[in-house]
Amino acid sequence: MRLFSAVTTAVALLSTLVLAAPGVELKAVLKYDGPTKPDSYIVKLKDEVSKEDHLSWLDSNHNSTSSVTYRDWQTNVFHGYAGTFQPDALNALRASPDVDYIEEDGVSEGSATVFQNNAPWGLQRISQNPRLINQNPLDLNFTFKFDDSAGNGVDIFIIDTGIYLAHNDFGGRAVWGQTFGPYQNADGHGHGTHVAGIAGSTTYGVSKRARLVAVKVLSDSGTGINSDIIAGMDWVAQAYQQTGRPSVANLSLGGAASVAMDAAAAGLVNSGVHTVVAAGNSNINAAGISPAREPSVITVGASNIADARWASSNWGGVLDIFAPGENIISLGITGPNSLAVMSGTSMAAPHVSGIIGTYITTGGNLFPANMAQKLDQFSLLNVLSNIPLGTVNKLARNEQP
């Protein structure tokens, strides 16, 4: 996975060789069309299978040739696990009747072009109808119309590189949730902090009273393992169930097509968490990008100040909406008052996450599918140019047009 974000997952379940009996068909391992973590796999169990019993079998028979890295995922997001497996253990898993499918643990990444400056034109564009064509996106003379209670009582989970909690513009509302992967509890990249700032910082954010929760699944180089990302989504679902606070998950990341990633994202939505995903920054059809291609998530493309699709934004039938994503000013990590400018669908997605936080505060929480309908109903229609055939022409708004 990459930012937009990069991530890779490890699934390890097999150990000593339990050779398949003659005539037993070995399941094919689903290939990941991108870089992978060596000898690492995500294992999806059949719904009726007890994971506890299955892992007990694995530990008993294959302990020396398998290493399970994520065995405690909850079934409401993804009924399975991840790990590293030697060939004998992998073949035993491929032969096991417990297993639904096995997928290579891929790497995803986040995409954003960084340069220093400041001008939150995007906040005006999502709150007012008049176009901003021929205006400078780096000016600071734009007006944001919003409800001052926006985000109150809402958790926005930033599944990313982490958040620089000490930044003054968070006003103490940013907290560390959990880290998945061999990383420190800090944002050494800046992508996650920038995304969080758009979603809910005091000056540059949409949902200015929301609590922003860091879920670090990407390294300080902006890449990560898919299994770590799935673990992050699983943790968010559990946190939502424990607190009962209306919750939004922002995933400004993606990678090659992954059945496991899509299933986990769908599980997060089914748990009741509004899930917003960046479409990707390759100017291609996002139908091959996970988790952007998952139908139940809200997939966001990027627009620019001229109301055109940002040149690198992905497109296609899996997109649900567009939001500002080019030359976006938000928070930096070089100091408590630092700013940065980035471009990408990574920046568009948190505009939508913040808008959903606003909708929850002003109109009450809804089931994710109903919230997606509201986002659709409030959007501006057919105002964007350079939209390929078969792609929605809808620009997100924080209130009824």
TrEMBL record:
Belongs to the peptidase S8 family. It comes from the Eukaryota. It comes from Lentinus tigrinus ALCF2SS1-6. One of its GO terms (molecular function) is serine-type endopeptidase activity. The active site is at residues 160, 191, 346. Pfam families: Inhibitor_I9, Peptidase_S8. Residues 40-106 form the Inhibitor I9 domain. GO terms for cellular component: extracellular space. Gene3D superfamilies: Peptidase S8 propeptide/proteinase inhibitor I9, Peptidase S8/S53 domain. The keyword Signal applies. Residues 1-20 form the signal peptide. Keywords: Hydrolase, Protease, Serine protease, Signal. Residues 151-370 form the Peptidase S8/S53 domain. The lineage of its organism: Eukaryota, Fungi, Dikarya, Basidiomycota, Agaricomycotina. One of its GO terms (biological process) is proteolysis. This is Serine protease.
